[in-house]
Design goal:
By secondary structure, this protein is α/β, with parallel strands linked by helices. The protein has a domain of 249 residues: SGNH hydrolase (Rossmann fold), CATH 3.40.50. Helices cover 42% and strands 20% of the residues. The protein is built from twelve helices and 17 strands. The strands form five sheets. It has an eight-stranded mixed β-sheet, sandwiched between helices. A three-stranded antiparallel β-sheet has the order 1-13-12, with helices on one face. Strands 2-3 form a two-stranded antiparallel ribbon. Helix 4 packs parallel to helix 8 and helix 8 crosses helix 9. The longest helix is centred in the N-terminal third of the chain and has 30 residues.
């Protein structure tokens, strides 16, 4: 009899726990986001991104559709080279008097979340064309979102022999230097970080991400993420708590691993230069490619504005390293960050949104105008674009 009563109590307790978990699951699904869920990127439209043998992925040629993110929905088309169109070509001009400018880079050059005519390459071309005596511009936007500089270099080697540019403007997102070790790659029809692919599972509308290192734990976490959201959240938080405890100052395991309890001493100039070196080596290769094709290379330095409207102090050091490196190779550099700081006046107006650090339409417009003026002022607009004295006369007309 006592055994039956004990069994009944355990059964009642189990039922109570089950009911509580079911209630918690229902509440979670109604009011909270799915644990570990990440929506697909704007590049995930069917057929928009295709595999590429040397750089992993590329934009599909002859594609037409829409890019959709959490905060935008814009039209998008590509030409036979997989470049975003409409390309800017001056109206009513003789093809022999066209100046071809190739814009290269990642999403900041591609025009993340913007129509093509709002991105800085198109606006720069229009600004240049407004100059007295300037030839018409053929602007080719060959940027691809997510590319690291090695992928950009491969893209340049593919496009330059086909379009024969007189000028290549390279958008360098300096903080994207870490992509040299962890590039974006094609996975399940979308573009994701290469190192993250083992931690992802495709589900409807996006991916489930797990922080687990062990394959068995990943499988359990994925199963929970698909069937039992509360369980997935509890497992993830337990895992993170265990990780925090394992790395807490003075912890036995941390001490055994020989971790310096004093913590990191912070970034050093040597470390910052080493961080940027692989990316800058690719810039040098793009410069060599441009010179072999009879084109000039100009580097556009790209930094992002923080949510509070400021720019990171480290970005100034990064810019200095980039400029010093470029000067040694006679590569002109334009850095709009001081101008963006001045015009922002502490407001985050040059972010796409508070949650998205890409440049806003206002940032693209300001950078395009000042970059065009820089090209003219420094006589970097190729003379082929307007006769032998074009660069000099344009500079004087400023």
């Amino acid at each position: 009899m006592a055994l039956n009563r004990r069994a009944a109590k355990w059964a009642m307790a189990g039922m109570s726990v089950a009911v509580a978990l079911l209630a918690a699951e229902g509440i979670w699904r109604l009011f909270f986001p799915r644990p570990g869920f990440a929506p697909r990127s704007e590049l995930s439209a069917p057929g928009m991104v295709v595999p590429h043998p040397s750089r992993g992925y590329t934009i599909a040629p002859g594609w037409s559709g829409r890019m959709k993110g959490t905060e935008f929905d814009v039209g998008f088309r590509t030409d036979a080279l997989g470049c975003r169109i409409p390309q800017h070509v001056g109206e009513g001009c003789d093809p022999s008097h066209l100046c071809t400018i190739l814009a290269l880079g990642d999403s900041f050059t591609f025009g993340h979340g913007l129509e093509e005519e709002q991105a800085w390459p198109e606006l720069m071309a229009r600004r240049l064309e407004s100059r007295p005596g300037m030839s018409r511009i053929c602007l080719v936007n060959g940027a691809v979102s997510g590319y690291n500089m090695a992928q950009v270099r491969d893209r340049a080697a593919e496009l330059a022999p086909q379009i024969h540019p007189e000028l290549i403007v390279l958008g360098v997102f300096v903080n994207g230097a870490e992509r040299m070790k962890n590039p974006y790659a094609l996975y399940e029809g979308d573009v994701v970080r290469d190192h993250e692919r083992p931690r992802l599972r495709a589900v409807e509308g996006g991916f489930l991400h797990t922080p687990m290192n062990r394959p068995a734990l990943r499988s359990v976490h994925f199963w929970l993420g698909e069937h039992f959201f509360v369980g997935a959240a509890l497992l993830e938080q337990s895992y993170r708590l265990f990780g925090w405890m394992s790395n807490a100052p003075g912890h036995y395991w941390r001490s055994r691993r020989g971790v310096d309890e004093a913590g990191s001493r912070g970034p050093t100039e040597e470390g910052e230069r080493a961080y940027l070196a692989p990316m800058l080596a690719q810039v040098d290769e793009i410069d060599a490619l441009a010179r072999s094709a009879g084109a000039r290379l100009v580097v556009l330095v790209i930094h992002v504005q923080r949510e509070d409207g400021t720019f990171r102090e480290i970005d100034e050091r990064f810019s200095r390293i980039v400029v010093e490196h470029a000067d040694r190779h006679a590569i002109p550099v334009y850095d709009p960050t001081p101008l963006l700081k001045e015009r922002a006046r502490g407001a985050p107006v040059f972010r796409y949104s508070l949650g998205d650090a890409h440049w806003s339409a206002a940032a693209h417009a300001l950078v395009a105008e000042d970059l065009a003026d820089f090209l003219v002022r420094e006589a970097l607009v190729p003379t082929a674009c307007g006769g032998p004295d074009a660069a000099r006369s344009l500079a004087l007309a400023r």
